[in-house]
Structures are given as structure tokens and as C-alpha cells.
Design brief:
The protein is of the alpha/beta class and about 170 residues long. It is built from five helices and six strands; from the N terminus they run βαββαβαβαβα. It is globular and about 40 Å long.
Length: about 170
Amino acid sequence: VGLVGFPNAGKSTLLSVLTSAKPKIADYPFTTLKPNLGIVAYRDFQSFVMADIPGIIEGAAEGKGLGHYFLRHIERNSTLLFLVPADADDIKKEYDILLDELRRYNPELLDKERLLVISKSDMLDAELQAEMKVLLDRDFQNIPYLFISSVAQQGLQELKDMLWKMLNS
């Protein structure tokens, strides 16, 4: 499973919570300078690998930021987990930019199975999350999505269940 997202979306934090990997985590962009791998323990002593790819910015396919160095690592993943933080101005727009960067780098990446994860959802109250679900249901009819919080440990087992099912279908 490859983690795809803008800098500071929560990719490294998620990896550190789901695996024993110890990626550098800080509150500034481009903390992750190289891909980090971790093994996610799953039920009945099963596991799968998760890859934290450095943050991708708009224009990465043309060499902007650091993400263009690492787009090739995304090719090695069978499932892509798009991480967009709950406080993003426009979740659909962020997802579309990330998807477009992958398409411009290698259109075959769009054939990979995808999951959208709204990270940092502990910042949302129930009412705001319900409002966001209405928009997500409209904008992401063909892509499964899930709200999680790595820090508050919310939605993580459901995430592992969804990923396991995607990897083994």
C-alpha cells in the first residue's frame, strides 16, 4: 500500500501508528525525504507492507518539489491510499491534483486500486463530519473513503480491514 498525499497530510504519522517504522515526523513540509516502509500487522498473524512516499505537490511530474524523485516508488504499490487532511480547503481538489500528478507521470498508475482517507478527523465534530460525508458521497461515488485519526487512534482497524480486502480481492 502506497501512501500518497501532499506534505503534512499525516502519511508518516499513519505509518508510525500502524507499523513499527519510525519515520521523521514534524510540523513542516517535506519532513519525509526518502520513502519509508513498514509492515502492518493484521489479524491471524498476517501482514502487509505500507510505503510512506514523500509529499507530492502540484507540478511534481514536471520536477517541482521532491515528489518527482519518488513517483517511481508509487509504481511498486498495488493499492494507493490517498491521504487528505480533514482541514483541507477542498478535499476533491486536493485528490484531483494528486491523481493528475500520477496520471502525468505514468497513466498506468490510474489503474491501481485507490482508497481515499480523510486524516486528522479528530478535528471534526459529528455534525461537520456528517456534512462532509454528504459532499464526499457526491464527489467520490466510485472511490471508497474513510475518516481516520492516527493520533486519536480512530478508524484504524476499519482502515486495515479495507486495505486487507483490497489487497486480497
